[in-house]
Write a structure and sequence with these properties.
Layout (H helix, E strand, L loop, with lengths): L6 E9 L3 H10 L3 E7 L3 E9 L5 H25 L37 H6 L7 H10 L3 E13 L7 E7 L12 E6 L6 E2 L12 E12 L4 E11 L1
Parallel strand pairs: 6-9, 7-9
Antiparallel strand pairs: 1-3, 2-3, 4-5, 4-8, 5-6, 8-9
Length: 236
Amino acid sequence: MADEIKYEYKTVRALRGTDGLVISKMQKDGWEYVEKEQGKLRSALDFRRPKKPVPWLLIGGAAAVVVILVVVIGVASALGGGDEKDEKPAGPTVAATKKPSARPTPTASAPITPEADPEFAALLKGDSCDEANAAFATRHQGEKIAFDGSIVNMMPHGDYHTRYDLLLGPGDRGSNTAVGPAFKYDDVNMYDLSLTGKEVPATVGTGDKFRFVAEVGEYNATQCLFYLHPVSTEAR
């Protein structure tokens, strides 16, 4: 039927506890939530949205314009070919130089902190699905950040018993964290965390508070997850 709505479909996998964030993000982008398949650690969320009709009339018009331009350029080239002369530049050219950015590049001993960087401080008080997360991850990927936070959620990575996926949040509220990026350590063990402090814990769990120092990874806008790579984890 001519009026039948055609849909495109998309399945997004989300960690347990982040379903609501993912659904909200997808709905903002025009997707309709269909159903969820709950796994042991992750959920498969199905979405759909109407396909946009192909603007054949506009495409045909654009093609016609291209053809006309090609003909006009060809005629102009044929008429003006006899008047071409070799031209030399008036003088030597000098490549323009660009001054380096005034913003210092953080070093291993000086990570970005909310105390010293207003942009990072604002990020820690924002929304986990805010576009500012993607912009910050792109601009600072590979650099180090440091912040006071807690473990929001902790679960085994796949079928492993000594490797984990950790969801981190700024502040001290653990699983009740409601602001800031959803930072994630993916597939790490206790050794990877490089635990430090006056009293180094033997294990970690949901709700534990630390001073996290980590390397900035990518930001997954679909799942609203900000990936980090642990550098050190100081108990506080």
